[in-house]
Specification:
eight-stranded mixed β-sheet; binds histidyl-adenosine monophosphate
């Protein structure tokens, strides 16, 4: 029979690598809770219109990357509906915010999520069709303080703390303000005007973008086009007074808390809902991401709730590409030790079939005391028990006929190359930790 393989652009995450994923998620949860965020879980598929309206009809995501299908009605009471696997999670969070009338609490809502997203992109290192995001959103009615520049700075400070805590080296915060919903059309008009006479000298992709979505030209990495792109007007010159002042206050708060940033007027991001502050954190070349060097991205979306038919509820958020964060940590080798240290506390080795039952009882007892235990089998030869135990655990507990009778067990500690005899009552204590304290 032919073997069935995973679908292109998807990944199997296996132990011990998943241990690193667990560490990252635990660190994120711990940081989020210190900053007052609670977890939200929204559905993995939603009404297609949700993404069309929020992410934007003309974006790459909506025009070519979504997994969309017509969900047939199964009964007369149901209607057929176009559904889409979520390509991102901000739209779902804002939909839930509106649906559950969270605005009426009058309080700032701070929510985080960890979960898979789906985009039909061309797969390459750091870019997958199913990928994971760790994200957070802060939103609420204007009187909750959701619009304050302090929210932007606090979120960015939280991200810098999280990346530092995880040991990501050389991260760089790229920051921009793309202005309000009224600044942007003025800027796009100026861009179109500036692009018209030079368009023909750009590559084919950029020529197309100049017509369909001129902001995307600024994102272009095509080296031959850079000289021309650098002559285009800068969004900074099109911000109204309010957006300028807002951005100034974001920068002041970042300076005060010592978060380093680089202003990048070309950072416009690929989703339509953004207003004012936009940002990305990148990592240096050689951090395992190849050309996909954006570890995370985010920004403000002050009009999104209204675009989705909800109340005025400004907000800001981000999403970390978890796959990319893991690749970076692996490349930067910070976490290698954590993985190789990931051994169980003990391997219990019954010396014969007759000791299997006693070994299981002992394993249960030790696991109940919080120890991580793997259980061998009385059928194993002694050498096989030794080899398996050495691979999996810090120590081996030998359960032979004498041990069962006397309730005194022989422990072999591999790293120390020592052996000792320990009474059952003291066993748990002497198996804890990776360093031997011989009894
Ligand atoms: P985004 O920039 O589209 O923003 O995605 C955020 C991050 O997800 C990227 O920086 C990248 O690390 C990761 N990512 C995106 N696509 C892929 C892929 N195909 N494979 C692997 N990783 C990927 C958003 O999604 C916004 N919802 C972020 C946000 C939240 N803005 C406000 N709140």
């Amino acid at each position: 029979m032919a073997v069935i393989f995973k679908v292109r652009g998807t990944r199997d995450l296996l132990p011990p690598e998943t241990y690193l994923w667990n560490i990252v998620e635990q660190a994120a949860r711990s940081v989020f809770s210190r900053y007052g965020f609670g977890e939200i879980r929204t559905p993995i598929f939603e009404d297609t219109q949700l993404f069309a309206r929020s992410v934007g009809e003309d974006t790459d995501i909506v025009t070519k990357e979504m997994y969309t299908w017509e969900d047939r009605a199964r009964a007369e009471s149901e209607r057929a509906q176009s559904l889409t696997l979520r390509p991102e999670n901000t739209a779902g969070v804002v939909r839930a915010f509106i649906e559950h009338k969270l605005n009426e609490t009058g309080m700032l809502q701070k929510m985080f999520y960890i979960g898979p997203q789906f985009r039909r992109e061309r797969p390459q290192r750091g870019r997958y069709r199913q990928f994971w995001q760790i994200g957070a959103e802060v939103l609420g009615p204007p009187w909750s303080g959701a619009e304050s520049p302090l929210r932007d700075a606090e979120l960015l400070e939280m991200l810098s703390s999280l990346l530092n805590e995880l040991g990501v080296r050389g991260w760089r915060l790229e920051l921009n303000s793309i202005g309000s919903a009224t600044d942007r059309p003025r800027y796009i008009a100026a861009l179109r005007e500036a692009l018209a006479p030079i368009k023909s000298r750009l590559c084919e992709d950029n020529r197309r973008r100049a017509d369909t979505n001129p902001l995307r030209v600024l994102d272009s990495k095509v080296s031959e086009d850079q000289v021309l792109i650098n002559t285009l007007p800068s969004i900074a010159d099109f911000l109204d007074e309010e957006s300028t002042e807002h951005f100034k206050q974001v920068l002041e708060a970042l300076d005060a808390s010592g978060v380093p940033y680089h202003l990048n007027p070309r950072l416009v991001r690929g989703l339509d809902y953004y207003t004012r502050t936009t940002f990305e954190f990148t990592v240096p070349d050689g951090s395992g991401l190849g050309t996909q060097n954006a570890l995370l991205g985010g920004g403000r979306y002050d009009g999104l709730s209204e675009i989705l038919g909800g109340p005025k509820a400004p907000g800001i958020g981000f999403a970390i590409g978890e796959d990319r964060l893991i690749l970076t940590l692996q490349a930067q080798a910070e976490m290698d030790n954590a993985i190789s240290d990931r051994k169980l506390d003990a391997f219990i080795a019954p010396m014969g079939i007759a000791q299997n039952a006693a070994a299981l009882a002992l394993a249960k007892e030790l696991r109940a005391q919080g120890l991580s235990i793997e259980l061998g089998d009385g059928m194993f030869r002694l050498r096989k028990s030794f080899e398996t135990a050495d691979k999996l655990a810090h120590r081996m507990v030998i359960v032979g006929e004498d041990e069962v009778k006397s309730d005194i067990f022989t422990i072999k500690h591999f790293a120390a190359g020592e052996q000792s005899k320990v009474p059952r009552t003291e066993l748990a204590a002497s198996l804890r930790g990776s360093v031997l304290s011989p009894t």
